[in-house]
Amino acid sequence: MVYAIIVAGGRGSRLAGPIAKQYRQLAGVPILTRTLRVFDGCGAIDRMVVVVPAADIDFVRAAILEPAALSKNVVVVAGGLQRQDSVFNGLAAVAPQAALVVIHDAVRPLVTCETITACTDAARRYGACIAGLPVWDTLKCISDSGCIEATLPREHVWMAQTPQAFRADLLRAAHERARREAVLGTDDASLVERMGAIVHMVPGSPCNIKITTLRDLALAEALLALAEAEPERVQW
Length: 236
Fold this sequence. Notes:
Elements: E1 2-7, E2 25-26, E3 29-30, H1 31-40, E4 47-52, H2 57-68, E5 74-78, H3 83-92, E6 100-105, H4 113-126, E7 128-134, E8 139-142, E9 148-152, E10 158-167, H5 168-180, H6 188-194, E11 200-203, H7 214-229
Parallel strand pairs: 1-4, 1-6, 4-5, 7-11
Antiparallel strand pairs: 2-3, 6-10, 7-10, 8-9
Helix pairs in contact: 5-6
């Protein structure tokens, strides 16, 4: 059994407005709804856990899940203070017999089933896998004063995305160790890396953007409009 934990526990302060970014409209549909529909329609996923702020649980059930009419079982749980805490809370709702767990940011609504499946296939084979993109820009290391100290080789540097897929027991152990040692990782893969496990990378998509600012929201709307008008030009 494969669970997806959709992390929607933040308030999105960088995307100004009276409503949290995961509930903002993207081309007439809430961002969270779009993300859930991708996972709901993907055969690689069996069940979903949605992690939201505790005060939003009733709202999400009534205003997001009910209108979305999803076909798969969805559990809504309260998030924590940090994203890592929210994932840990989500893991508590995952059945003990689950084989794999996929972690995904709710505000990456343009993810595809193909990317999700590539991650789960690799996690099933290797134990841990994340989606990402190679870096094309020249990388500079700078000092605290803003001066360039070195030009870094980019050949082996990738930008991490979600989804990130793991053997369920490995991910649980990584989070439990991090909590015991008071370690806050930058993503779930970093916690698994601390366990000494090898995390594989599969190609993600430039379209799989994380909606953090109004510019990101505008870009996502433009990509959706382009995909509808000229689908051959959008390589998801």
